[in-house]
Specification:
Elements: E1 2-5, H1 16-25, E2 32-40, H2 58-74, H3 78-84, H4 88-92, E3 100-103
Parallel strand pairs: 1-2
Antiparallel strand pairs: 2-3
Length: 104
């Protein structure tokens, strides 16, 4: 999970583009990528660092997709894995057209 504006506040050389290289380099098999259009580093936090311009669908999508992931891989829930390996997260999580949901 990352965003198109997800740089590093600590290490400026960690760019959003660099974060996306990780998924591209992974071999196929149970790999997923969610990229939020306009998502920054703090979209993934529920602390005082929240951006007042936070995009409303990001946090609920993070919660739902990560929960399904843990259900699939920690609980062995086949239905959760099937859900992840489909277009269902796009609709269920109100992802916008420019958000990326992919798996390999």
């Amino acid at each position: 999970m990352t965003g198109t504006e997800d740089g590093s506040p600590i290490t400026p050389e960690t760019t959003p583009e660099l974060r996306r290289e990780v998924y591209a380099a992974l071999p196929a098999g149970d790999k997923y990528q969610l990229v939020f259009e306009g998502g920054n580093h703090f979209a993934f936090s529920d602390t005082g660092f929240q951006d007042e311009n936070r995009i409303a669908h990001h946090h609920p999508a993070i919660q739902q997709i990560s929960t399904r992931f843990w259900d699939a891989y920690l609980k062995g829930d086949a239905a959760a894995k099937t859900w992840l390996q489909s277009a269902a997260p796009r609709e269920a999580c109100d992802l916008v057209e420019k958000d990326v949901w992919e798996w390999k």
